[in-house]
Amino acid sequence: SGLVVYHGYSYLGSNNLAYGNRLTKNVHGIVIASGNNNTFFANELLNNSVGIKIEPSLFHTDESEMNATFHHNNLIGSIQQVSVEASAAVFFDAHREGNYWSDYTGNDQNHDGIGDTPYIINNEQKDNYPLMAPFDISNASLSDAFPDTSPRHESHPFPTTLAIGAVIVASFVGLGLLA
Known about the structure:
The chain is an all-beta fold.
């Protein structure tokens, strides 16, 4: 796996921002096994077997406490974009813009760059505002990582850990600063 988030014996798996990573040709681009209040912003997931895997049953006993938000990520060419193996509060948009999905087949009649119909992940999760073109992660700003504080879930405090990097090829516990 490219990037794995869980907390195991510490709380490094919570309150993180994974930003500006390029996760390419992994079995799983991102795996979330536990933790809460994690945001995945401006990442590229390219040609993975599974782009994002949500598997809270691995290390987390109460899936209702787990939450994560994905927005402005590019999911391109994975065999399966998202695999959700248990119930968890995972959101795939930021109430105004979501992610780019290379297999999205919707239209954009008003030409605002956002698909007119949601990208369906499963019966519980969907991206309500799929992007019609890949997001330019090279010009992304950290100020855009937390665009809303709606009551959908708790507002995001600035993360305690930040993962930034050009390429991640190994798994790690929690998230750390990559240079």
